Amino acid sequence: MVEGKVVVVTGAGGGIGRDIALLMAKYGARVVVNDIGASLTGEGLDAGPAQKVVEEIKAAGGEAVANTDSVSEASSAERIIGTALDAFGRIDCVVNNAGILRDRFFHKMSAEEWDAVLKVHLYGAFYMSKAAARHFKEQSSGSLIHMTSTSGLIGNIGQANYSAAKLGVTALSKSIALDMERDKVRSNCIAPFAWSRMVSSIPTDTPEGKAEVELIKQMTPAKIAPLAVYLASDAASHVNAQVFSVRNNEIFLMSQPRPIRSVHRSEGWTPETVAAHAMPALQASFFDLERSGDVFSWDPV
Known about the structure:
By secondary structure, the protein is an alpha/beta fold.
């Protein structure tokens, strides 16, 4: 489905990114495997993970090159796209998958912990997408696939930085889709459920935590890859500005914010009438204070 296309997958040295890179190559894409080889918190550098995935792809008869630049700076994002152009002469798809975690309760979170996560997830998605955009525009084609998270779409505890970044990524994706629709450039999001380093930090010191981890372990990163390959292909030319989620063998189309209820008062509002009229009328439609796990409350199938 992606025969001959050139695809960059960031954070592809392991987990979800690795499986996307492998399946892209299996379906005929030439792949730039990007990974700085850092720890879950973004520390330490190792070229090994990216090169190992390249060797896996080549051993299976595919084409791939490694890149170890960071997505968190504009200049290095340009070098990642430059690797695709130098090796394969074009760029057709970018999968913005690279990520780190610095989990902490909001009131205890440092500015550095906030900045580090936003730089990789949100700034990284912006820098990578922008670096590819002019090439997409020139060739009147291109697909951007961004990894978001239900931590941002719904909510999670101890992840203010990650949740803000991931919800920001969904808004960025929608803006790109609107701005570049006339250039036939598509931008979509996937919120993945899968066992990877990004969820391996879930506490297991309670029975509930242990049970949650065991369920997530059933959801392998390979389950995410088919949707990513499809979104990169010409078969998905009509799919734009959507947010999907993959949970084991389930694919969800996620909602996007829209008005759900309104109240009107012809003479306008005062704080008193807001309290007496507006809030009682709207309260039946309030959303509960839920985490991702509360909304996805059934076992994966």
